[in-house]
Structure prediction request, 237 residues.
Amino acid sequence: MTETVRRPRLDLVLPGTWWRAPLEADAETRSAAIAEFVGARYGRRDDLARSRADHRARLGRSIDEAVRAGAVQMHHSESNDGGIAFATTITEYALPSAFGTSAEPALLAERVVGALTSGAAGAGAAADDPWSAFAAEGGVAFAKGESIVLRRIARQVADRADDAGIAGSAASDETAESITVDYWITVPGSAEVVLVSLSSVLAALEPLMLELFDRIVAAAEWRAAPTLRDELTASRS
Prediction:
């Protein structure tokens, strides 16, 4: 039997309690899971019916968009170890064959940086020195075992109700500045890169959130993906 080689999966070690979105499920199962999750956040009060409906719709669109973009896992924070919600969403995307066929981490990182800076202002200068352009945009690079991690921060205005970590509020039209931190991570022994994107509406706490996000990425471990033979064996047991 010829076995299909599958890339390792990133095993996220998350602090506190998180809800894992059922990305692999069919539409009906997803809808039921979303309704259960949102209902648990808002309760059954009649005056929050509109908020529940809006949140279900937003979360459904978010999950659909993530699936179309190649997401392989998505988690929404419910509370930290102290029982306090910290309004964070984590999404991991697979980027198969997006940066060539070389498994050399340094070369992969260089190609990712080139892609990230190609559309930046002063694209000509960025092409000549993409690493300087990446750093000028706040990007940083660091090692994680055999992987190289590239981190970049984006800030934008967001609707608080878009984040599943904030619930129970009837003020669904309230807005706040949000922060999204993207981590491109080279996969050991592979020509692939994964993107782990962490978002929160707690932009006012950016230093603390960035420290938390860095720790989550640092604690993540590569887990060997099961082969087809492993899956067939498990299904028979």
